[in-house]
Amino acid sequence: MSIKITATVESYEQAHKLLEAGVDTLYFGEEKFGLRLPTSFSREEQVALIELAHKHGKTATVAVNGIMHPAKMKEVPDYLDFLATHHVDQITVGDTGVIHVLRERKDEIPYLYDGHTMVTSARQINFWGKRSAIGAVIAREVPFEELKQMAPKLDILGEILVYGASCIHQSKRSLVENYLSYIGNEHDKSKEAGLFLSEPRKGGTHYSIYEDSHGTHIFANNDISLMNELGQLVAHDYRHWKLDGIYTPGETFVEIVSLFIEARQAIIDGTWTAERAEELAEKVQALHPEERGLDTGFFLLDPDEVK
C-alpha cells in the first residue's frame, strides 16, 4: 500500500526535518506565482530545496497556482524555464493560461490541477486529466459522502488536505488596503500581521485575513485535522495527503506532520484502530496553535448542508 504525504515548507532547515521525518513531497514556491505559501522563497532557495528533496530520494512540487493577470503571465514562461532547468518534479496550476503555456512547451512539466473551490467533481478532474494533469487538488468543501461517490470515477489522483488552514475566499481586490485606507490606518496587511475578521454577535470567530500581490485571502474560522478520518480516506483510495503549515510554524508543524506519518505507518501495518486514531488526534490538538480552532471542516457534513 502506498500513501503519499506532501507538506508545505517555511525554511530549508524545516524542509530537512520534514524529509527526515518521512515526508514524500516538499511543497513551496514564490509569492509572485504561488498562492498562500508559508514563505516566499528566492530562486536560489528554490533550487536548494529541489536538490535537497532529490538528495533524499523525494520529490518537489512548486506552486504556480495563482490566477495570473497579464503582467504576471508574461513572466510565467521564464519561471517555467527556470523550474525545468532545475528538474522540478511537478507544479500546481489553476490558471488555464498557465496550462496553455505548459502544453506548448517541448519539455512539458507535470502538473496537478489546483482550481481551489472549483474542484468538486470527478468529471472536472478527469477533464484536466485528459489535458495532461497528473492529479488534482480536491476542494476542501467536498464532504466525505461525495468523496466516496467520486473515488471510483477518478482517472488521476486526488489530493486531500488532512491538516491545515483552509481558504474560504480570495478576491483579486485589495480589500484590506482599501479598508485600512478608509479608516486612516497604515497597519501591516501581510500574513505576519495576524489580522482577522470576527462576526458580530458570534464571539470567538476568527477568520484570518491578509493581502498580497494576488489580492485578499480569508480563511475558515477553524483549521482542518482529519486524523480520525484517515482510515476512511484510505478505504476509498484517497492516498495522497496534504499538510499545510501556513499558520503552524517551525518545529510544531514538523511534530504534527510526524504524527500523520506515524498514522500512515499504522495503516500500512494493519495496526490502525479507532483508539490509535483518537490518541494521535489528541496529540495534534495539543500541538495546534492555541489561537486557532480545529475541526473536520466540511468532511462530515451532509452534502445537502453545503451551499
Automatic annotation (TrEMBL):
Q: Organism's domain of life?
A: Bacteria
> Which is one Pfam family of this protein?
Peptidase_U32
Q: What is this protein called?
A: U32 family peptidase
- Lineage, highest ranks first: Bacteria, Bacillati, Bacillota, Bacilli, Lactobacillales
